[in-house]
Amino acid sequence: MALEELIGGLPAYAKDLKLNYSSLVKQNTELTPQQLWGTVVAAAIATRNPELTAATIADSVAGLTPDALDAAKAAAAIMGMNNVYYRFHHLTSNEKYATLPARLRMNALRGHSVDPVDFELWCLVVSTVNACEKCVDSHEKVLREKGATEELINAAIRVTSVIHAIGVVLDSEKASPTAAV
Question: What's 80's domain CATH number?
């Protein structure tokens, strides 16, 4: 199913999400097409909603080359791992864990073929969805060091919030006892 169809089929209570999707994604002026579609893909993957993820990946050809799509997927994958590991660090009161080596391979952080700002942005997007304080802070600082403005970062996070909420609605509707079987 195409992303437009999926969003068009959202229930009436999600009207704000439809409007926000239209203004933030369809009429985007703040992000490059690659930044926008990489953000949409990475955020959709982070929602773990298969229908949203499939529709987003299928429609991402509007702004992503195959290499950029792979990079967005790599950002989602590596942050899926790192966010769990580093979120544990800020959830536990035992400070010893912060002194222990991660010993997790993270070659994807440097092995992609897209603009480093774009990749960092997608890592930030996934870290935000996964609520990893350390990763959000780290990627936001790196983005600013690389010249990204707070406005650019905020634009990507606004898109992320809408994509995440769409995934929530789709999951809710699927789980609803009144959902069509």
Answer: 1.20.1290.10
